[in-house]
Design goal:
The chain is an alpha+beta fold. It has three helices and seven strands, in the order αβαββαββββ.
């Protein structure tokens, strides 16, 4: 049993050899705490630029897909975004779980690059329509005041022959699931100069 604990302790104290370069993970610390991990090879996913000659293995993974040029490249900028599994495997057809995949954009611009790792999609709402057909018995109601109960309404309008009624705009600034914010960090490995 002692050997097993020692082996586990060894892998926990030196996991740098088992993490793949380019791995991103959610981190529950703030940006300042994340910066303290730089010396262990972790960087906040905020688009920061790194030097290619210092992190050649990370550059092999990312290239300039997230920005930068020449000897500088950027890590992914994950601020305010969700991750989504890429819907393609080894250049083959995907599962069509990402129906807009072919219009995905470069990570740091609006240039379309298609279904590639680290590509980005803008927010979107699935195509749909709300309409009350002409001649129906439904009414459009505009709310002018509200207490807990009763609701106060005015301007009841019945759909008339030849005139459809559209719903009033509702909602907020984005469509989103319940979520918890975290910082994403990426494993860059130790700089080439310190290895």
């Amino acid at each position: 049993m002692e050997n097993t604990i020692n082996e586990i302790g060894a892998s926990v104290s030196s996991p740098i050899n088992i993490w793949p370069i380019g791995m991103m993970v959610p981190f529950s610390g703030n940006a300042e705490t994340a910066a303290e991990l730089n010396q262990q090879g972790w960087y906040l996913c905020n688009g920061v630029k790194l030097k290619r000659n210092q992190y050649p293995r990370l550059f092999d993974v990312l290239g300039h897909s997230c920005g930068g040029e020449g000897d500088e490249f950027s890590v992914p900028d994950m601020r305010g975004t969700f991750l989504r599994g890429v819907d393609v495997e080894y250049g083959q057809e995907g599962t069509e779980r990402d129906p807009g995949a072919r219009w995905r954009m470069k990570h740091n611009s609006f240039a379309e690059i298609g279904n590639k790792v680290l590509s980005r999609q803008n927010e979107e709402i699935r195509k749909h329509q709300h309409v009350t057909a002409k001649g129906s018995q439904f009414v459009r109601v505009e709310k002018i005041g509200m207490t807990i109960f009763p609701l106060v309404f005015s301007r009841f309008q019945k759909a008339r022959e030849g005139k459809a009624i559209f719903t009033t705009e509702t909602g907020n600034s984005e469509m989103r699931p319940v979520n918890v914010s975290v910082n994403y960090i990426i494993f860059a490995g130790l700089p080439a100069s310190s290895v």
